[in-house]
TrEMBL record:
Originating organism: Lactobacillus crispatus (strain ST1)
Family matches, as CDD domains: HTH_XRE (cd00093)
GO molecular function: DNA binding
Gene3D superfamilies (UniProt xref): Tetratricopeptide repeat domain
The protein's name: Ranscriptional activator Rgg/GadR/MutR-family
Secretion signal span: none
Span of domain HTH cro/C1-type: 6-59
Cited InterPro entries: Cro/C1-type_HTH (IPR001387), HTH-type_regulator_Rgg (IPR053163), Lambda_DNA-bd_dom_sf (IPR010982), TPR-like_helical_dom_sf (IPR011990)
Top-level lineage group: Bacteria
Ranges in a coiled coil: none
Length: 284
């Protein structure tokens, strides 16, 4: 995907393959990357961008998933309507598309749809081989663009516990080292890790406890302080999952969210609370 984006920017400026590859990689290697045949290291991408006069920020903005992407928009619409039947139809269509294209972007979109389907049905239809590819992609990212952050935050049910935890820790390290200069990226990064915490509370409460401890050390700016409130309620839900607190206390916390006007968060966490109560899987 990124190679194709690079190629488009190169051609717009009428820069030859040889000029773009100069002193970085061979023209043939660049051609293979531009056509999604191989991946190349992040430090080489930076040097290639210099050759076509594009800075990293411009390139990452150019490569973002368009939030008006028709496929994502349809998945979101059916997800909000709890319409798992139509999401499954989209999954089947996108899976065929990916099998023909082998395009990384199609894989990421398919993963998002499968995650939504799993959240509604508890049925994982994302193939194991695809899951391995997805984890490989995200576990080898050196620069977390908003696109990759959003993909992770919207695919948290597709990883096993250790994978989910390891990717979350990588993002938290970037948060703590102030890698995210853009406020919106910071927000999405923190939100994605909190989504991972939510999944871990079900999958592996012990790892969820470890992740929660690390999340609580992250500075949360006032404009997004409601993420701190959400994390606080998730802490009580984790305690409930571990048998350390009572249902009545959770109900009070959820009612307090409504009183604060955080009705959407209250609705989501109430749904999650009911899911925990109905879950009969043993604690990890």
């Amino acid at each position: 995907m990124y190679g194709q984006k690079f190629k488009a920017l190169r051609l717009q400026q009428h820069i030859s393959l040889e000029q773009a590859a100069n002193r970085v990689i061979s023209p043939s290697t660049l051609s293979r990357w531009e056509n999604n045949k191989i991946d190349i290291r992040f430090n080489l991408v930076i040097k290639l961008l210099d050759n076509i006069h594009i800075n990293l920020k411009e390139f990452t903005n150019y490569c973002k998933i368009n939030h008006s992407n028709p496929f994502v928009a349809k998945v979101a619409m059916y997800y909000e309507a709890n319409d798992d039947r139509h999401i499954l139809q989209l999954i089947q269509s996108k899976k065929k598309e990916y099998q023909n294209s082998h395009n990384q972007f199609d894989l990421l979109l398919l993963a998002i749809a499968c995650n939504c389907y799993y959240d509604l049905t508890d049925n994982n239809v994302f193939p194991v081989s695809y899951q391995k590819k997805l984890f490989y992609i995200l576990s080898n990212i050196e620069y977390w663009t908003e696109m990759y952050i959003n993909v992770f935050g919207n695919t948290v049910f597709l990883y096993d516990s250790k994978e989910l935890y390891s990717i979350s820790i990588r993002i938290l390290k970037n948060l703590n080292s102030n890698t995210f200069n853009d406020f919106q990226e910071y927000y999405y990064a923190l939100s994605s890790v909190i989504n991972a915490l939510t999944a871990l509370i079900i999958k592996n409460p012990k790892l969820a406890s470890q992740l929660l401890t690390k999340i609580e050390k992250v500075s949360i700016p006032k404009p997004i302080s409601y993420l701190k409130i959400r994390t606080n309620v998730l802490k009580y839900l984790l305690d409930y999952r571990l048998g350390k607190t009572y249902e009545k206390l959770i109900s009070i916390k959820l009612e307090n969210l409504k009183w604060l006007g955080l009705t959407d968060i209250a609705k989501d966490l109430t749904f999650f609370f009911n899911r925990i109560k109905n879950d009969r899987s043993p604690l990890s």
